[in-house]
Amino acid sequence: MNINSNNSSNGSSADPEVTRRKFFMFITTAAAGAIGLLAGVPVIGFVLAPLVRRPPQDWRPVGSLDSFKIGETVKVDFTDPSPLPWSGITAKTAAWLRRTGDNEFVAFSMNCRHLGCPVRWVAGAKLFMCPCHGGVYYEDGSVAAGPPPEPLARYSVRVNKGQVEIETSPIPLTTFRS
Length: 178
What we know:
Layout: H1 3-9, H2 20-52, E1 58-64, E2 73-79, E3 92-99, E4 105-109, E5 120-122, E6 127-129, E7 136-138, E8 143-145, E9 154-155, E10 157-160, E11 163-168
Antiparallel strand pairs: 1-11, 2-3, 3-4, 4-9, 5-6, 6-7, 7-8, 10-11
C-alpha cells in the first residue's frame, strides 16, 4: 500500500483545483478580517490620540486683580477648556487661588491626586483636605497625610490688563505642573 498516493487524492497543497468549500472558507476569512480591521481602527485611534494631540489649554479670567487679598486662598470658578456642547453645568470647574504678592498668585487644582475627589480649603488649619479618602495637603500643595501619591497640581497664573487669568487644562490627576 502506497501512502503517498493517498495524499494526492485528499486535497494536498499541490492540488491546483479550488473547491467550493475552499472558496467559501477564503471569502469568510477575508470578510471576518475586513470587519475586524474596520472595528479595530477606531479603537486604535482612541488609544493613540492622546500621544499625538495636545490637550486644549486656554487662559480663563477668574476675577479682577483688586478682588483678591494678599495671603487669602479662595475658590475661583471657570469653564473647562474642552467642554462638549451637551456638558451643561458640568463644564464648570474650579481651582484654589492664593494671592502671594502684588502681582503674584498660585493656583491649585481642586482635585485630589489620589482619585480626583474635590479638596476643600480649611482656612483655620491652613490645609487642603480631601473628605473622601483622608488626603491632606499643606498650604503649598505638598502631601501632609493620607493616600495621595503627589502634591496638588498647579495651574499657571498671570495678570493681564487688571484681570487674573488661569491657564486651564483637563483635570490634572497624573502629572505635576509647577
